[in-house]
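User: Just a sanity check before I run the rest of the batch. Below are the structure tokens for the first item. I only need the designed sequence back.
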């Protein structure tokens, strides 16, 4: 779980704590587009580019660590990681934060579509991803858990769109860390009573694998 969420923490820390002047100088070394902007706008774009670049690097490192420490990279981390690299790269290239801001919407919508397909075809796709995290869970429990996560992902896709389109960059970055992650973990915990009623053998421990927050 720490591997999945560590890149978001890096993203947040670079955006809010990295000094503005060094970031502007770093960006200026690779592009001259900041010179034609007013200072406040230049600071914002420099933060966007530096934070997004750090997010991409941290995501790649997280995937490598997952492969080395756990022996594999989960399908969800692969999907999220590839989209971070693609949309983060577009944000840096075009100096436009909208690309990286749309990425969570696409991830959530993709996960929801995959789970909906599994429900429609009777295939326990979520069980294939998280089966070891929920030992003893019955087939009916897996169906309900799949349905619940599908609806959650749809809601998060809508929420991400509302947040990034109606607020500023800093608010959206903060929402990813202080909003999306607690909502995801809280939703996972909210499913526990249903899971226990359908055979989940908790053994005193909560599941360690939950879908990503982005």
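Assistant: Here's the designed sequence for the first item:
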């Amino acid at each position: 779980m720490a591997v999945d969420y560590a890149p978001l923490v890096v993203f947040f820390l670079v955006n809010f704590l990295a000094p503005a002047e060094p970031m502007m100088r770093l960006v200026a070394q690779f592009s001259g587009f900041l010179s034609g902007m007013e200072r406040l706008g230049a600071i914002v774009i420099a933060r966007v580019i530096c934070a997004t670049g750090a997010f991409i690097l941290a995501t790649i490192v997280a995937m490598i660590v997952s492969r080395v420490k756990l022996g594999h990279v989960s399908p969800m981390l692969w999907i999220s990681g590839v989209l971070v690299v693609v949309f983060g790269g577009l944000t840096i290239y075009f100096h436009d934060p909208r690309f990286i801001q749309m990425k969570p919407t696409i991830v959530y919508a993709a996960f929801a579509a995959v789970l909906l397909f599994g429900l429609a075809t009777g295939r326990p796709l979520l069980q294939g991803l998280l089966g070891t995290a929920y030992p003893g869970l019955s087939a009916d429990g897996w169906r309900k858990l799949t349905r619940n996560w599908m609806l959650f992902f749809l809601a998060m896709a809508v929420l991400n769109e509302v947040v990034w389109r109606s607020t500023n960059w800093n608010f959206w970055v903060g929402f990813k860390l202080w909003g999306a992650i607690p909502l995801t973990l809280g939703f996972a915990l909210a499913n526990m009573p249903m899971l226990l009623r359908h055979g989940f053998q908790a053994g005193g421990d909560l599941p360690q694998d939950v879908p990503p927050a982005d």
